[in-house]
């Protein structure tokens, strides 16, 4: 394995093994990684010697913490938005390839899985979670939106949990991930090597997973499902906040914390995310990805993306100055514009 490569794609036994190999950057995706992953998946799809795909992250901290947002932020500020959109276009096309992949696709996740990392794992059939598993789609906190197939996946989670995750960006550990269907199997990290070797050796995927899987027990979100479903079923972001405030007034600490979290996020991004989840339940995967490319093509023109990345990832002052600064000031027409057809610039479905 080339230790200096950003991604390593290799045949081992019956497996096509993909290692995301930027551990110091928490394996954040670059355009090179997206292209190499797509190339390997295309080649292995018709290679009869490869019967399954295994995806893993290098290092002990992360499977993949997202796309290389700092780089995309730099490109946008430099006026090179077309190059940034090239990344998102090819990333979304990769997400579609994974969703429609003809062979078992297994992600081994024992660490952080966020943003772009969700896109290269959630749409495969098997998401194996170790004890350090930590999921989030935190994009509304940086003036972005839960993309990489969130439009399709989030509304299909139980109850209103997808809307909750989209609007709060809250982190989910392994037990709740199993409950929500974000992860399919709980396997302790010290059993990952044995599982990997069994899969490489060609053991039937379901049997290999069943031998090492365990019940992680209930997670903290399970007890809050009633509050989540009653509050996040409201018809707007403002109405959701009102219901959370009402629940908090009746003694729900969870509702109070959730409302406080939402009030730190970009008002524009929350409204976009609300529309994503509201519309996404009726969309096929490809149309959901087209929708996301429409949104990202407009977001790269928006103030909040650059301001959010500055405040959270660059200056790290945690004090983003959103424009507009309140939910009440967000114009419905501005949100609708993000979802409008791109004409000749629509996402191509290869």
Which terms would index this structure?
350 residues; alpha/beta; 2-enoyl-CoA Hydratase, Chain A, domain 1; 6-stranded mixed beta sheet; 4-stranded mixed beta sheet; 16 helices; 10 strands; globular
Strand content: 5-15%
Q: How many domains make up the coordinates? A: 1
What structural class do the secondary elements suggest?
alpha/beta
What is the CATH homology-level superfamily? 2-enoyl-CoA Hydratase, Chain A, domain 1
**Which of globular, elongated, flat, extended, rod-shaped describes the shape?**
globular
Approximately how much helix is present in the residues? 40-55%
Q: Span between N and C termini?
A: 30 Å
- DSSP strand tally: 10
CATH architecture: Alpha-Beta Complex
Largest sheet: 6 strands, mixed
Sheet with most strands: strand arrangement: 1-2-3-5-7-10
CATH class equals: Alpha Beta
Order of helices and strands: EEHEEHHEEHEEHHEHEHHHHHHHHH
Number of helix segments? 16
Low-confidence stretches: none
Radius of gyration: 20 Å
CATH topology: 2-enoyl-CoA Hydratase, Chain A, domain 1
Mean pLDDT: 97
Pfam families: ECH_2 (PF16113)
GO molecular function: 3-hydroxyisobutyryl-CoA hydrolase activity
Protein name: 3-hydroxyisobutyryl-CoA hydrolase
EC number: 3.1.2.4
């Amino acid at each position: 394995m080339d230790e200096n490569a950003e991604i390593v794609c290799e045949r081992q036994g019956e497996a096509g093994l993909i290692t995301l190999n930027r551990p110091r950057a928490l394996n954040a995706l670059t355009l090179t990684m997206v292209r190499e992953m797509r190339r390997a998946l295309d080649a292995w799809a018709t290679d009869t010697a490869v019967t399954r795909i295994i995806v893993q992250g290098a290092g002990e901290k992360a499977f993949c913490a997202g796309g290389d947002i700092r780089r995309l932020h730099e490109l946008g500020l430099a006026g090179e938005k077309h190059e940034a959109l090239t990344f998102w276009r090819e990333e979304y096309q990769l997400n579609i390839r994974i969703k429609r992949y003809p062979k078992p696709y297994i992600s081994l996740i024992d660490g952080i899985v966020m943003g772009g990392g969700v896109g290269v794992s959630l749409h495969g059939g098997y998401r194996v979670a170790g004890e350090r598993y930590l999921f989030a789609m935190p994009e509304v906190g940086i003036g972005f939106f839960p993309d990489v197939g969130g439009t399709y996946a989030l509304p299909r989670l139980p109850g209103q949990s997808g809307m909750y995750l989209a609007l709060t960006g809250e982190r989910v550990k392994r037990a709740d991930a199993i409950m929500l269907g974000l992860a399919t199997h709980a396997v302790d990290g010290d059993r990952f090597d044995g599982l990997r070797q069994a899969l490489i050796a060609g053991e039937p995927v379901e049997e290999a997973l069943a031998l090492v899987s365990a019940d992680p027990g209930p997670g903290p979100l399970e007890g809050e499902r009633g509050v989540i479903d009653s509050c996040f079923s409201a018809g707007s972001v403002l109405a959701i906040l009102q219901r959370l405030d009402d629940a908090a007034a009746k003694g729900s600490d969870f509702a109070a914390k959730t409302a406080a979290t939402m009030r730190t996020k970009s008002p524009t991004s929350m409204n976009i995310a609300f529309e994503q989840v509201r519309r996404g339940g009726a969309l096929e995967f490809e149309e959901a990805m087209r929708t996301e490319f429409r949104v990202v093509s407009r977001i790269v023109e928006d103030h909040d993306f650059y301001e959010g990345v500055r405040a959270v990832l660059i200056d790290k002052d945690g004090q983003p100055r959103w424009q507009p600064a309140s939910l009440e000031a967000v114009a419905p027409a501005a949100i609708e514009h993000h979802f409008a057809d791109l004409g000749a610039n629509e996402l191509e479905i290869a």
